[in-house]
Amino acid sequence: MKRKILWLVLAAVLVALAGCGGGSDRPVLETTIESDLNVDGDIFEPLNGDPRTVTQGATVLTGVTSTGEYRGFLSFPLNTIPLDAYIHSATLTFTLVPPTDNIPLEMELVSFQPSSGLLPSYYEEGLTIYASSLYTLPAPNAFNQVSFNVTSLMREAQRRGFDDLQLRVLENRDFAVQGLVELSESNLTPPKLVVVYD
Hints:
By secondary structure, this protein is mainly beta.
């Protein structure tokens, strides 16, 4: 009889421990990270063979024109997110500067030292692509903002232990249409990354 009671008590304790998850649950948090305006910029490659030019200013350009192609760069410091965090979602939002063309976009996860600034070689051959995602430019909201799900890119940056989420933004390589997307880089409307994690 005593043995039976002991087994029942042990079973109840095990069920209680399983139900509480062992005390390892962490709260789900949300943080908003503004891009580093001192690092962001674009690189233009002229069709006529002239040297590439790097521009860092009030906007970032992405797309193809009759004279060449622009590729944009955005950098988000990840120092507020623990390296062992699980990323539930990551959403990139930026404000468009009208008029903006509706072109397909590609975002590539890259990594470079922010202190070195943007180098012309980062346009193509100077950076490793760790992951990429394709996007259709959505219709902007009333504030000219558009949002993109970049969870897979954020998870890869986290898995690799990157200090920053750095994205090269370009027109989808599978398309050959002309058009420009212009992103605001003002202090009032910087690109923002919203990360939900635990």
